[in-house]
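Checked the freezer inventory, then went back to the computational side. Two predictions to log before the end of the day. The first one is the construct we discussed on Monday; recording sequence and tokens without edits.
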Amino acid sequence: MMPTRDRPSPTLEGEAAQTPPLRANNEFDDFYAANVRALTSQLLAYTGNKAEAEDLVAEAFCRALARWKKVREYQNPTAWVRRVAWNLATSQLRRRGVVQRFLNRQRETHETAPDGDRVDLMRALAGITPNHRKAVILRYMAGLTVTEIAEQEGVAEATVRSWLFRGKAALAERLSVQDEKEQR
């Protein structure tokens, strides 16, 4: 029997047909609106794929919403969502690496990428170690301090400064090599 507009669909015995209560305020909506663009930009720089970055950030916000009563009490809920999104991205990149290594053993492929400064930066970021890449993105895109990055990553501030120094040096080297090729 198909439910109609006039007749509600049958429910299981003992189950009350209830609609979920509406939130009393828009606290989470405001939190989401204030942070989604910046977090998506950071994850885009890390993953190199806009759709993937959007999916990862959406998943992180879904997890925050499910635990909102607890998360909103944290000193910095944005840091919690960022950490969840980065962890999801790191897991996904690891899985992709396994798949890519398998595919590389199966057949050889050649792809050409479009030109442009943004592509050069994305390519340069992809070519440095994950810790250096994460530190550079969090410092210069997210605007976090060395102390905040150290807290988020659970490492000493000296380690973060080292990652930043090495990450910037690696980026400068990769980008200057690109410039030399363009001049020829």
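The second is the one RB wanted added to the comparison set:
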Amino acid sequence: MSAISTSEISRLQTCLRRLLGSPGLTVNAPPRAGLSVELAVNGEVVGTIHRDEDEGEVSYAVHMTVLEEDLPPAR
């Protein structure tokens, strides 16, 4: 995995807001080097984004975790 630049963070945020239809979505730079870029919705961190470069092609992987306690009650 390689570091995500400030420009990439801005472009990812624009893309993900459009793709997921959520203007409250933000992509946040890590507070210090070596930590993951965070994906948040309305200020709540819901996942991380990782950059991969292979043979000159760049891709981004979003890892999202949903806790069972955050789910609505079962019917």
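For RB: The first strand starts at residue 25 and ends at 28. The first helix runs from residue 6 to 20. Let me know if you want it refolded.
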